[in-house]
Amino acid sequence: MTIEMFEKPLGMRDDFPSIAKQKAQLRKRGTEQIERAGYELLQTPTLEYYETIGKISAISDDALFKLLDSQGKTLVLRPDMTSPIARVAASKLLREKMPIRLGYYSNVFRAQKREGGRPAEFEQMGVELIGDDSLYADAEVISLAWDILQELGIRSGRIVIGHARLLELILADFGLNTEQSENVQELFVAKNGVGFEQLAQQLPVPEHKQPSFRKLMQATTVSDWKPWINEENEEQQKLYRDMERLEKLLGQNGLGDAMTFDLSFSSHMTYYTGLVFEFYGAGSGFPLGSGGRYDGLLEKFGLQVGATGFGLRVDRLIETLSVEEPQEPHTLILFDEQSEQIAFDKAKQLRAEGKRVTLQFAPAVKALEQFSELFTKVIRGEELRNG
Amino acid sequence: MDELTIAMPKGRIFEEAYELLVGAGYDLPKELDDSRKLIVEAPKERIRFILAKPMDVPTYVEHGVADIGIAGKDVLLEHDRDVHELLDLGISACYIATAGLPNTEMNEVTPRIATKYPAVASHYYRSKGEQVEIIELNGSIELAPLIGLSDRIVDIVSTGRTLKDNGLVEYEKIVDITSRLIANPVSYRLKQQRITELVDKLREQVTR
Hints:
The complex is a heterodimer. By secondary structure, chain A is α/β, with parallel strands linked by helices. Helix content of chain A is 39%, strand content 19%. Chain A has helices spanning 17-36, 50-56, 82-90, 92-95, 135-152, 164-173, 178-189, 193-202, 210-214, 234-255, 295-299, 314-320, 340-352, 368-372, 381-385; strands at residues 40-41, 47-49, 66-68, 74-77, 100-109, 121-130, 158-163, 259-261, 275-280, 289-293, 307-313, 331-335, 357-361, 377-380. In chain A, the strands form three sheets. In chain A, strands 1-5-6-11-10-9-7-8 form an eight-stranded mixed β-sheet, with helices on both faces. A three-stranded antiparallel β-sheet of chain A has the order 2-4-3. In chain A, α1 packs antiparallel against α5. Chain B is an alpha/beta fold. Chain B has helices at 12-23, 57-62, 73-79, 118-127, 143-146, 161-165, 185-190, 192-207, and strands at 4-9, 39-42, 47-52, 68-72, 84-88, 94-100, 112-115, 133-136, 152-157, 169-177, 179-183. In chain B, a hairpin with a 4-residue loop joins β2 (39-42) and β3. The chains are: A alpha/beta, B alpha/beta.
């Protein structure tokens, strides 16, 4: 009896050989860069406790795959890599070695409510730099992500950079309380310009500050942020100077024209406390990756250190890079009972030379002609016997 | 100059949106609407139009096959797509409201609501603390209370004519609706200059 259930659960995908191969190459090229930058790769478990990782991860509850273990505790399939790595970093082993540089290439799981086009399981690669709260750490991870995108050959790459803390301070300066500030930020996350304009009318922003307030979504360079910075607020001054230096640093690292500094850029990942950024490229309608500074997250594991990092979406990178690779040399040796030994020896010899060889017993193939077309070179048993 | 792909809704909103674009100085082919083509090029402006069902516009834009689109707020509320809402075009103004037969109360045990907007209706009644059963229909929603399928309907009201002609009355207004200019988040960043230019030109038209 054949199985009737050919369907896969919503959002699950098969990687056919050509995609699997592309992914393997991408993984190799990406992780090599990560290691060369001094990061160590690690792997965390697929299953984590709901109470810790599930709640900390900032992925909405209904996007978590939940299951029960034999003791009745709720587990989740890891929805992101940042929180498990924070958990690992906070463990005794690594505490003394700060700052630590960790990298990963892992699959993560996020349940999808809607129809196709959105995978529920996908691979991410990225890094976390933990225990360094300087600007240079931020510049380092952004540059590394950028280098990986360049190495992979992304066209029209672009990075958008915002600052969660600075935005919070500036919104407070406009006279907004916490709730109003959160409402505004929610609209910023959705980039809802219409909603923002409507809300602006109802907020207690003084009349003379209204024009400046309404421009919050329009900045593209750090100098555009200047009018919002309070001259008397030291923290704002410092953060603004940091951003100026970051712009310069990244400019020197070749990101010059590719940067957009948008103060209203916010992430739905609520654990970011400083810099937030997102990468885009031609060929995908969705962001290629994102990241930022998340000093508060490690506090939840009892560690008072700064941390920053990025994650790139492998599925979307593949989408933007979908160029047909030329077929690699692949030899087929078709043998029969008389040429069995000589075929085995030939395959062994060619493989030792580094060639890719498929060995196939000819009578077992039903459509010999079509099968042979899959290979760049075909050697038949009788040819071998005749030398 | 980057090429822009714009998803336009066929039908009710189309003409007003077309007028707006022409008013904003875009040189568009005249036969845009009456042809049966689904893709129309405006080579002078380096714009390509996709003519889509209004409900589908945000889908095209979310997936990035269209850079920008024109969509009713009703569709945006119903589907909650990941798109940027750039400008209120102020066209095709109407609102979503609840309606039913005059002088009727909702069934206490299982109040039933027929609608084309299940998410909007469900959100509305939940925010009022009422538990209702939503019945999704695809058109002629007014039929539902007349033949006893539902106590109330949640639907678009523009002139109120259809309600009146069918002997229904409006009960509560839920939300005002106009058409919006929406953009794909990636296109918005990669083609920011062209899109901002378009937004500014349209804004001028809208506020005039």
